[in-house]
Design goal:
Blueprint: H1 2-21, E1 71-76, H2 80-94, E2 97-102, H3 105-114, E3 123-127, H4 129-134, E4 139-140, E5 162-168, E6 171-175, E7 200-203, H5 209-222, H6 226-234, E8 237-240, H7 243-251, E9 257-260, H8 262-266, E10 276-279, E11 287-295, H9 301-311, H10 314-323, H11 353-358, H12 360-373
Parallel strand pairs: 1-2, 1-3, 7-8, 7-9
Antiparallel strand pairs: 3-11, 4-11, 5-11, 6-9, 6-10
Helix pairs in contact: 5-6
Amino acid sequence: MKNIVRLIFVIALVAVVLTACAPAPTAVPPTAAPKPTEAPKPTTVPPTTAPPTAVPPTAAPKPTEVVLEKELVLYSAADQAMVDFAAQAFQAKTGIKVSTVQGGSGVMLARINAEKARPLGDVLWSVGPDTIGAMPDLFEPYKLKEFDKLLPEAQDKTNLIAPCTGIASATIMYNKKLVPAADVPKKWADLLDPKWKGKIVNADPSKSSSSYQSLVTRLIAFKDKGWEFEEKLIQNLVIVPSSSAVYLQVGTGEQALGLAFEQGAYIYAAGATATAGVVYPTDGTGVLFDVAALIKGAQHPNAAKAFLDFSVSAEFQKALIEKYYGRRAVRSDVTLPPGVPLAKDIKTTEYDLKWAADNRDANLKKYQELMVKYNK
């Protein structure tokens, strides 16, 4: 027991001696905080002594020059001679080659409709305004350069139609040898006389815009009695497929009377050798304009627009009414040739273009029924 106590005492003594002899820990001086890094001063850039280069103002771009195509395809319901006259005058003025296709207004309209996916014509020229109005989606607007020079009544605010010439929509034409002066009809109602049965020629209004205008003129003039009058009148008529056949047959003496548009009648009614006379019915006729329009999707649109502008120019309008006696200028600065009565001197009816266009199909259907009924 004594030996164990003595061992524990010795171990404790050794531990004390070892602790006393151990070296003192080295003091570590505190590390001085580093000075904050001073932000670099910005480098001063000396100002440029040379003046800034002046930039000239950008000049306004010149308007893109319209390039006219080298050809034009003209569709028209005017007689071939007048179509050729217009085509040749435009070609001589511009150098643009003009091809023409002529036919009745109904035929031309049907053709344009059939070709609408890929139009072959560029302009439809010289048809009744109700022809354009019947299918306006086949055409597109264009404002004429000299729009303000047109007669107020010839200005279409929608710009869909351009006037060609003015005409009295419906006249009575008579052959001077076949109709004595005392028997010349003075009004529409005179045509119902049984003595004229089979002696009055008229164009089918479904094929002729001027004949359709003549029909509408009478329907308006006779109001609610219009179709009653037409049913009586058609019994005296000979129906032909074109308006040109009307004035040709009366002028050459094949028929005594005809329902003709003004200029067509004057082909045989002007000059000292005239074979025919013209009557403006005292129960009313319309004085309106035949028109033209730009075909939608035309392959030669710029040439087409140039033609429309040319067709209403003072130069061409003057030449046209001198060449085709009985046509009326669409401008206020071109006067009528001697012998053509002023509109104010003609008993006129108010021609309702919208009604004529909106009811075209119904009116033509009704007229066709009368033609079938009376075997015309």
